[in-house]
Design brief:
By secondary structure, the chain is an alpha/beta fold. It has helices at 11-26, 40-52, 71-79, 96-104; strands spanning 33-36, 60-62, 88-91, 117-122, 135-141. The strands form 2 sheets. Strands 2-1-3 form a 3-stranded parallel β-sheet, covered by helices on one side. A two-stranded antiparallel ribbon has the order 4-5. Strand 1, helix 2 and strand 2 (60-62) form a beta-alpha-beta unit. The longest helix is centred in the N-terminal third of the chain and has 16 residues, at 11-26.
Length: 146
């Protein structure tokens, strides 16, 4: 029997991840770093997104603590990002991924469906300065609009 960590991405999940990568490419998004849960489905999502962005040089880093992350854990992960990383993707799980997206800005963000993308801008000198409600929501896209 498969554990939750071993659960594969569904065919529709694969299609959504491919379309997400194409959407990001078409909007000139480039990541310095992709932090990803160790779950097979999130790793596959991250790989399909970066491949379809035509950005095979993007560093996808498995961050084990994302899998069972609490809200505070995700803030800790982000606050510990290296200074040189300006555009970072976080590929994780609900409910914590939806919570952090909502808490980063003053925007009301509903729970994410799988493969939802939200982009934020921050006026920070250092990731360690990241606090709730300090970001600006650039865009949010759900798979159904790809």
């Amino acid at each position: 029997m498969q554990t939750d960590l071993q659960r594969e991405l569904t065919p529709s999940g694969k299609r959504d991840a491919q379309m997400a990568g194409i959407y990001l490419k078409n909007n000139s998004v480039i990541f310095d770093l992709v932090l990803c849960s160790p779950a097979i489905r999130t790793q596959t999502t991250a790989q399909l997104i970066t491949i379809n962005m035509s950005d095979s040089s993007t560093n996808v880093t498995i961050e084990p603590s994302i899998y069972h992350a609490t809200d505070d854990d995700l803030f800790t992960i982000l606050r510990n990002l290296p200074l040189g990383k300006k555009s970072v993707a976080l590929v994780g799980h609900n409910p914590s991924i939806s919570w952090i997206a909502s808490s980063l800005t003053n925007s009301k963000i509903e729970a994410f469906s799988p493969c939802t993308i939200a982009a934020f801008q921050f006026e920070l000198e250092n990731w360690a300065d990241l606090r709730p409600h300090t970001g600006r929501l650039d865009f949010i896209h759900f798979p159904s609009i790809f």
